[in-house]
Design a protein that fits this description.
This protein has one helix and 22 strands. The chain is mostly beta strands. The strands form six sheets. Strands 13, 15, 18, 20, 21 and 22 form a six-stranded mixed β-sheet that branches. Strands 4-5-6-7 form a four-stranded antiparallel β-sheet, with no helix packed on it. A hairpin with a 5-residue loop joins strand 4 and strand 5 (55-59). The chain is elongated, with a radius of gyration of 23 Å.
Length: 311
């Protein structure tokens, strides 16, 4: 496990009755013992750091997720693992809030789960048997661009569904230039997992301005992260415009403009928006192919920057 400050932590079993925690200097490889973890027998197969500085470990002996204070080495149980771990297991996390765990083969279930590092709530992603993986003992998370969204992530490939004038955005910033006097069209497509002829309700948010960084506001249920705060998360800045055909206005926000579920155009103007202001747009859409514990995903974001194109 590696802290935001770059300090690395590891565990070694020694004996089941004496599991040790140590730090590692990533420049020299030198290890320094911190101490013995708790008072009970443990076999720790994975370790990640939570965003509050606490360590979360995967314990084979108790078949559970443990919370470890790296300062005091006190141990509390975060919750039982839904499946049987088996001989090996692994943990990984990108943001210190959402994690992934794998269970071993043989007596283990040989599966991959996504889980909440604060509540311990788990959701099955899928079996590792079909991939040919047996007994995974190490995981890592490849960080996706902040504005890529999570649509179709449960099926293996993230898909774009939000388009401005036919473009989903260039680069990690998802930049689209638009003519303030030209035609203007925002379109939401159905996710690949939604069959042809069926609709996909969504909520879309537009924030005025061009943020320098992506805040990555994490949503519950493993949905993913929005680039900026929303009515669901609180915080500032809140969106300037909302298109909401999902419902639940008390949670997702009251619609400021009407819209229909995807696929289709939800905002357009033949002579352009007539406003020389950049804006960021992103949303949440119904998605049976989601990797979350609910059938919904965060859409790709678009950073719309105005330009003036003379006749």
């Amino acid at each position: 496990a590696i802290s935001p400050g770059g300090e690395a932590y590891g565990v070694n079993q020694k004996t089941a009755a004496c599991p040790g925690l140590f730090t590692i200097d990533l420049g020299t490889g030198r290890a320094t013992t911190v101490g013995v973890i708790g008072e009970d027998a443990r076999d720790l197969n994975g370790l990640v750091m939570r965003s509050d500085g606490q360590l979360v470990a995967l314990d084979r002996v108790s078949n559970s997720l443990l919370l470890i204070d790296p300062m005091t080495l006190a141990v509390t149980e975060l919750g039982p693992v839904l499946a049987t771990l088996g001989a090996v297991g692994a943990l990984a996390s990108e943001d210190g809030q959402i994690g992934y765990l794998s269970t071993g083969a043989g007596v283990g279930s040989n599966e991959l789960y996504v889980f909440d590092l604060y509540t311990g709530e788990q959701s099955l992603v899928g079996t590792l048997v079909e991939s040919g993986a047996v007994g995974i003992s190490g995981l890592c998370v490849r960080k996706a661009p902040c504005r890529a969204g999570t649509v179709n992530a449960g099926m293996g490939t993230i898909s774009d569904v939000l388009f401005l004038n036919g473009a989903a955005g260039e680069g990690d910033d998802r930049l689209v230039l638009y003519d303030v006097l030209g035609s203007f069209e925002l379109r939401m497509r159905r996710p690949p997992s939604v069959p042809f002829g069926e609709e996909a309700p969504f909520v879309a948010y537009a924030w005025v301005g061009e943020p320098e960084v992506c805040a990555g506001i994490r949503l519950p249920f493993g949905l993913g992260a929005l680039s900026l705060p929303s009515p669901w998360t609180g915080g500032e800045p809140q969106p300037h415009r909302i298109w909401n055909n999902i419902g639940s206005p008390e949670m997702l926000g009251e619609a400021t403009y009407p819209s229909q579920p995807a696929p289709g155009v939800f905002a357009s103007r033949a002579d352009g928006p007539r406003r020389f202001a950049p804006f960021l747009i992103q949303g949440i859409i119904y998605d049976p192919g989601s990797a979350a514990s609910v059938s919904a995903s965060v859409t790709n974001a678009i950073m719309a920057r105005p330009v003036f194109v003379p006749d």
